[in-house]
Amino acid sequence: MSDVKDTERDPVYDVVVVGGGAAGLNAALVLGRARRRVAVVDAGEPRNAPAAHMQGFLSRDGMSPAALLEVGRTEIAGYGVSLIKARVEHIDHGFYVRLVGGAVLRARRVIVTTGLRDELPDIPGVRERWGRDLLHCPYCHGYEVRDRKLGVLGTHPGSVHHALLLRQWSDDVVFFPHTLEVDDADRERIAARGVRIFDGTIKQLVVDGDRLRAVELAEGRVVPRDAAFVFPRMVPNDGLLTGLGCATGEDGRVVTDATGRTSVSGVWAAGNVADPRAQVVTAAGMGSAAAIALNHDLLDEEVDRALEEHRALATLR
Hints:
alpha/beta, FAD/NAD(P)-binding domain, five-stranded parallel β-sheet, 17 strands, 24% strand, elongated, transmembrane helix, membrane, flavoprotein
């Protein structure tokens, strides 16, 4: 990646993309191919960094997240996109993109693809095993742990659905309600699905030989498990968007249209910052859709300006 000083010779960009994950890089790829002047600013903290592989991405199934990003950076650099390793501190209206350290990039439009952060339950072993054999997405990792002893930690209302869903991948699934209140109707659904329930507060994940071995309950029961799933609290990294005044919905998330356009003119959002359910392939598609819509927005502005100049010249003739 280039450093910030490289951009100061020509600091005005058609688009500054904040965030260099799948959404941001794919947006930059489309815009670079459209011959737009683009900069991607990335702090280098991808959400899926703990995962060794990603699945469900056609032609990239099983590829490591780090390898995907490296290929993406190389591709966009080939179209003249500036790659800046830095953290964005604030975006002013206008759009002045202020980086930590004092440098400022000027943009005509902005795409924010800063993702989200996973807030994990405070259970010993959870953070250490996260992304390894403590997982979240069955579609991302279920196949890799198929037919094994699976556990679901009841730390979120969505955990019940997790337990029901994971039964597709294994005949041996245990649901640990932990501190979650599970009503009789849900207990009946879980039992009907063939999932066992072990009540009691989870004390810790038992790890041995750098592998998850069991889930231990506070009363002493130890339930052997090969892998476990947990539903984290997903918090969007949307401070830059709300700082610009982008409207949020009843769920507290920034509101966008189908292309990622926010309520603030000239500002788009794509990837997990806009949709917590977006997988890597989905986020890449969102970045593409945002880039195309944004390019047309720039085109409209340029045509309007050209028309004004054309008419002004005509009056002088």
